[in-house]
Design a protein that fits this description.
Elements lengths: L5 E6 L2 H6 L1 H5 L9 E6 L1 H9 L9 E5 H6 L4 E3 L5 E3 L5 E4 L14 E3 L5 H9 L7 E2 L2 H9 L5 E4 L13 E5 H9 L3 E9 L4 H20 L5 H7 L5 H11 L2 H4 L2 H17 L20 E6 L15 H6 L2 E2 L1 E2 L3 H8 L5 E7 L1 H4 L3 E5 L5 E5 L9 E8 L9 H4 L2
Parallel strand pairs: 1-2, 1-3, 7-8, 7-9
Antiparallel strand pairs: 3-11, 4-11, 5-11, 6-9, 6-10, 12-14, 12-15, 13-17, 15-18, 16-17
Length: about 400
C-alpha cells in the first residue's frame, strides 16, 4: 500500500525558491518520505494552513509569523527557513501625487492578506487609519499605479522596483519595527503541524538544512528555480532579495530569532491582534538535543573519569547506542527490564557531533548512534546513578524535562 505523500507549501518569493531549490529539483530528499511541493501566494499559504480539513491541506508550509501566532497551538516553527528583516521589511507605498502621504480614516489602503505580518504591522502602526483591503501581493503595486488605491503595503521583490513605477515611499515598516523594538522583524517561517510525528518533522528540518547548504554552495544553480516563479525577472532584483532575507538566521533562528518572536507576540497581544500569552514553539533539531548513554548494572561514581568505555554494541554493531532525553524512559523499559541499577551518562554534543548519525530504530523513530568509542573524559559532561523503584527508573528532574 502506497503511503500518503508529505504535502509542503512554499511561497513564490526568491528567498523561498532559493532555499527549496534542492527539494524542488529532487537533489535533496526528505528521508523516509515522498514529498509534494506546491508554490502559492503567501496569503493562499496562510489560508490553506488555517483549513486542515481541506482536500490538499499542508503538512508543512511557509507562512507569515502573524498567522503562526494565531495558530500557535496547532503549529511548530522550524528553526531553518525563516525570513527575518534587520532594519527592513514591508514597505508602505503611496500612489503618485498623493497628499497627505500618511494613511487617514478615509484612505483606501491595500495589504497582501489579512494574516500576513505586513497586515499586522499596518494595524500596529496605524490603528486609527482606514481598515486595509486585502488583495494578492502582486496586485498591490499595479493598483497604486492605476490610481485605484491611495496606499499599499508592498512585500517581496517590489521593494526594489517601486520607484521605477512612480510610487512614493511612506515608510519601511521593518525599519520602524526595529527602531521601536530593538529586535529584527520575523516576517515568515516554515511551520509544521503538531499532529505530525516528531521523526517526520526531524526529517523535514534536516532536508531544509541540506537544501540551504546546497543553494549556498552552488547559488548559480538556483536561478532557474527563482526565475520560474518570481514576479520580477531581473536577476539583480532576485539576488538583492536573497541577499536581504537569506542569512544566518535563515539557517537557524537561534536565540536572537526566538527573542524576536517573543517581542512580536507581546506587541501583537498588546494591540489585541493575538491572544495574550501566546507563545510559538520552535522545533528543536536532532543535533541540538541532549544525548545520553546508559550503562547497565553500573554506579556512575565507580566509572573511570577518563579513557574509553567498554561498550559491547561497538564491537557487535559498529556504534554506541545513545538516546535523546525524551527516549530514555522507553529505552529503559525496552532494554533494561532485568536491571536494578543503571549509570546514566550525558554526552557533550559538540564533542561527538562529527561521529554521530541519526538512524531509524525502535518503532521507526530516529535514534542517535555514535560511530566511535565513547571517551569518558572527553565526551561525558554529567552522570547519575539510577535505581529501580516500583518497577521503573525515575529520571532526574532536569533530564526528565529534556
Amino acid at each position: 500500500m502506497s503511503r500518503r505523500p508529505l504535502h509542503l507549501g512554499i511561497s513564490t518569493c526568491p528567498n523561498d525558491t532559493f532555499l527549496f531549490h534542492g527539494l524542488l529539483t529532487g537533489e535533496v530528499q526528505v528521508e523516509g518520505h515522498d514529498v509534494e511541493i506546491e508554490l502559492l501566494d503567501v496569503q493562499e499559504l496562510n489560508q490553506r494552513l488555517l483549513d486542515p480539513g481541506a482536500a490538499r491541506a499542508f503538512d508543512v508550509a511557509k507562512a507569515s509569523y502573524h498567522l503562526a501566532l494565531l495558530m500557535a497551538e496547532e503549529l511548530v516553527a522550524l528553526p531553518t527557513g525563516s525570513a527575518l528583516g534587520f532594519g527592513n521589511g514591508p514597505l508602505l507605498l503611496a500612489r503618485a501625487g498623493l497628499d497627505p502621504l500618511t494613511p487617514t480614516p478615509s484612505s483606501r489602503v491595500l495589504c497582501p492578506g489579512a494574516h500576513t505580518t505586513a497586515a499586522l504591522l499596518y494595524r500596529l502602526f496605524y490603528p486609527d487609519a482606514a481598515d486595509a483591503e486585502h488583495v494578492i501581493f502582486s496586485d498591490v503595486m499595479p493598483a497604486l499605479e492605476r490610481g485605484e488605491a491611495d496606499l499599499g503595503v508592498c512585500i517581496h521583490e517590489g521593494r526594489f522596483t517601486y520607484a521605477a513605477s512612480g510610487l512614493g515611499l511612506v515608510e519601511d515598516l521593518g525599519a520602524r519595527w526595529e527602531a521601536e523594538t530593538g529586535a529584527p522583524l520575523p516576517l515568515g517561517g516554515i511551520f509544521a503541524r503538531r499532529t505530525l510525528p516528531e521523526e517526520t518533522v526531524d526529517a523535514v528540518q534536516d532536508a531544509l538544512r541540506r537544501s540551504l547548504a546546497l543553494a549556498r554552495a552552488r547559488p548559480e544553480a538556483t536561478l532557474e528555480s527563482m526565475r520560474r516563479h518570481a514576479q520580477e525577472f531581473s536577476d539583480d532584483v532576485l539576488w538583492s532579495h536573497v541577499d536581504l532575507y537569506v542569512n544566518e538566521w535563515t539557517r537557524d533562528l537561534a536565540e536572537e530569532g526566538r527573542g524576536a518572536l517573543e517581542v512580536l507576540s507581546r506587541r501583537a497581544a498588546g494591540a489585541g491582534l493575538v491572544r495574550p500569552g501566546t507563545t510559538l514553539s520552535v522545533h528543536r533539531p536532532l543535533r541540538e538535543r541532549r544525548l545520553f548513554h546508559l550503562v547497565p548494572e553500573a554506579d556512575a561514581c565507580d566509572l573511570p573519569r577518563t579513557g574509553p568505555l567498554e561498550v559491547p554494541s561497538l564491537a557487535l554493531e559498529g556504534f554506541v547506542h545513545l538516546s535523546f532525553a525524551g527516549q530514555l524512559a522507553g529505552t529503559l523499559d525496552a532494554h533494561f527490564g532485568g536491571v536494578e541499577r543503571v549509570a546514566l551518562l550525558e554526552l557533550d554534543r559538540d564533542a561527538v557531533t562529527e561521529d554521530l548519525r541519526f538512524e531509524a530504530s525502535r518503532g521507526g523513530a530516529l535514534f542517535p548512534h555514535l560511530y566511535r568509542p565513547l571517551d569518558l573524559g572527553r565526551d561525558v559532561t554529567g552522570s547519575w546513578t539510577l535505581e529501580r523503584e516500583d518497577g521503573s527508573f525515575p529520571l532526574p528532574d532536569d533530564v526528565g524535562r529534556g
